[in-house]
């Protein structure tokens, strides 16, 4: 999971961030529009309502150490799902390479179409 911030002002102004989720084995990509002031509760609801209802529950999620991902609520939610939440380490970009490439594609599409 990762964030795309700073969306173009030409796009819908009610949303200014994307939550990017990439399933590593099938390369399934999920882009969720969010507000900049989204909370851990909002993220938990997004994951439950959108991701879990579309797919099976992931066994391992790799994320950066954003405070929204390290909150007690999301940690408890991951424990409830039986999901292992792994965090990437600074200066080891290979852990997030797949999501970073998807973010580059998303930003390219945003520049072309927004």
Question: Can you give the helix content as a percent range?
Answer: 25-40%
Radius of gyration: 14 Å
Number of domains: 1
Overall average pLDDT: 72
What is the architecture at the second tier of CATH? 2-Layer Sandwich
> Helix/strand/pairing class, anyone?
alpha+beta
CATH uppermost class: Alpha Beta
GO molecular function, one term: RNA binding
Organism: Austropuccinia psidii MF-1
GO biological process, one term: DNA integration
Protein name: Integrase catalytic domain-containing protein
Care to describe what's here?
The structure is a single chain. With 114 residues, this protein is an alpha+beta fold. The protein has a single domain, classed as Nucleotidyltransferase, domain 5 (2-Layer Sandwich). The chain contains 3 helices and 5 strands. The protein has helices at residues 40-54, 72-81, 97-113, and strands spanning 2-5, 17-22, 29-34, 60-63, 84-87. The chain has a 3-stranded antiparallel beta sheet with strand order 1-2-3, with helices on one face. The chain has a two-stranded parallel ribbon with strand order 4-5. It is globular. The chain starts with a strand and ends with a helix. The model has no long low-confidence stretch (mean pLDDT 72).
């Amino acid at each position: 999971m990762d964030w795309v911030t700073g969306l173009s002002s030409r796009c819908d102004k009610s949303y200014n961030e994307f939550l990017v989720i990439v399933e590593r084995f099938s390369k399934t990509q999920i882009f969720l529009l969010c507000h900049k002031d989204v909370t851990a509760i909002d993220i938990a609801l997004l994951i439950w309502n959108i991701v879990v209802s579309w797919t099976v529950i992931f066994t391992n999620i790799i994320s950066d150490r954003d405070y929204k991902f390290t909150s007690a609520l999301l940690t408890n939610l991951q424990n409830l799902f039986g999901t292992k939440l792994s965090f990437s380490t600074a200066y080891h970009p290979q852990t997030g390479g797949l999501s970073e490439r998807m973010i580059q594609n998303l930003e390219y599409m945003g520049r072309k179409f927004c």
